[in-house]
Amino acid sequence: MNRDALADFLVRHREALRPGDVGLSAGVRRRAPGLRREEVAQLAVMSTDYYTRLEQRRGPQPSTQMLGSISRALRLTPDERDYLYRVAGHSAPDRAAMTDYVAPGLLRVLDRLTDTPAFIIDALGQTLVQNDPARALLGDASGLTGWERSGIYRWFLHAEQERWRYPEDDRDRQSRAQVASLRAAYGRMGPRSRAGELVRELTGLSQEFTQLWEAHEVSRRFEDHKVLIHPEIGQIEVDCQALFTEDESQVLLVLTAPPRSEAASKLTLLAVLGTQEFAAGQG
């Protein structure tokens, strides 16, 4: 671990960012244009003390999980992220197998979407990052680990927890769409990839998945219009817009509704209340 190189790298990249680059308000009395240490720590979901010690060359060797979080917080490119891993004493992760990296371009767009549900997933349906309205509508996925991060995995193995968010008459179509999306990723990534691992995992545990997998349906297109169910607000009709990275390994999904519609009013309520409980549900 090269403490000097690590500290210098973190400081330079933190100072190069502006609050608006990461969706934060500049506020008042900001003496320096770059991000504060506590802001980077907040974005990386770690303590300010831990991050500060890294910049001061006195922290412990960060884990690969911590480095992944810092990479997202500092909006590092893949090459910059690889360098960060190496100076911290780790091998650069396999880009084909990485599950914690988020494309900076998609993050910049997501940072500006504060009043409508938006989230980024990878080719295996793993939620990489969500904004507050998305967490309020779809649940907070930040604490999930392993295959539990994949919406495809949860759809077939935790049906009771996942499928209630969709109307009953739409669930069969959703099942086919989940499998068709994984089939597309499997074809692109190959049987020895993480897509292949997920297929083998689901084939051994879900008969429904196995039957749909044998149908060989392939699709990467997200449904343009869908109905989602919130436990307090009820059904919300939304349009889904998808923005892919160039290699189509990640996609930003944005859920919107026509202006002045009932659904738009419900999305506004979500944005205001976030993940707080509604007063009617607290009795």
TrEMBL record:
It holds the Pfam family HTH_31. It comes from the Bacteria. SUPFAM superfamilies: lambda repressor-like DNA-binding domains (SSF47413). Residues 30-81 form the HTH cro/C1-type domain. GO terms for molecular function: DNA binding. InterPro entries: Cro/C1-type_HTH, Lambda_DNA-bd_dom_sf, MLTR_LBD. This is XRE family transcriptional regulator. It comes from Pengzhenrongella frigida.
